[in-house]
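Let's practice the habit of predicting before peeking. Look at the sequence and jot down your guess about where helices and strands might fall. Then scroll down.
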Amino acid sequence: MIATYDVVTPLFEQFVDTQTPPEVIADGFTWVEGPVWFDNGLYFSHIPAKKLYRWDKINGLSVVIADTDFANGNTTDVKQPHIISCEHGGRRVLRRKQPISSENSEVVASHFKGKRLNSPNDVVVKSDGTIWFTDPPYGILSNNEGYQADSEIGSNNVYRVDLDGTVHCVVSDFERPNGLAFSPDEKILYVADSGSISGSDFPPIVDHSKPHHIRAFDVHNNTLSNSRVVTDVEPGVPDGFRVDTQGYLWVSSADSLRCYSDQGELIGRIVLPEVVSNCCFGGADGSDLFITASSRVYRVRTNRQGAESLYRS
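Done guessing? Here is the structure:
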């Protein structure tokens, strides 16, 4: 199977350069995740190898941190030159400062009400500086992506960290909360539920009787309400995703990166020969779409930009 495009509506050809095949910019991995464009380069996690990589057009690929303790999702801070990173093994969210290294970091969150978090998975920073992250159990179910252990909290939640460091649980009824992103105006928070994958098997066993959808919540004064399902995602489950400046969702799945409208209409797919884990926008003008997919990292030319670009300095 080769990488290609599935144009579902004419809009997709306006969004993506479908005449240029997806370009492999890095390969040879087991399971890559957490792409983020930062300091003129692409950073991403190789979870089983516990490494943080950087790629740029001039220097190519390099290892930035050789032992991240199973880092997964990454994002950028709002005004400061930091990467916010989720660690499965450390069961915490970190703020990685420049120059990026294993030593130059500080803990954003590791506990809730005195109990250790499960294994923070993905993270987003709102324009007011609050940090929002998901905390499924994938890093404690086995030793594949963390260290097997019992959950101290007993549920899989979505959290918000305020500027003073206080951690709040904002949603507690997910099976497996995963990727998350805000709408361009930050009035909606989207969260993936990948509950169809238990997380204890690799490759994963999928049970579509359990959640495999994107949920949306209204955001008011940093509290959430009006939960609804935007779309189910098959095959596989939704993992990481991004929202662009016009509100379209770019969502991972087992066979492709999918573009949906904010109403859940499928616009098109970037079809890849392996399971897609996540994506981000970046590059010189912010319109390159970088996709992490199992053993490879791809780049696709678009005219989209990530919604977070509206608030980053």
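How did you do? Residues 4-310 form a domain with the Neuraminidase fold (CATH 2.120.10.30).
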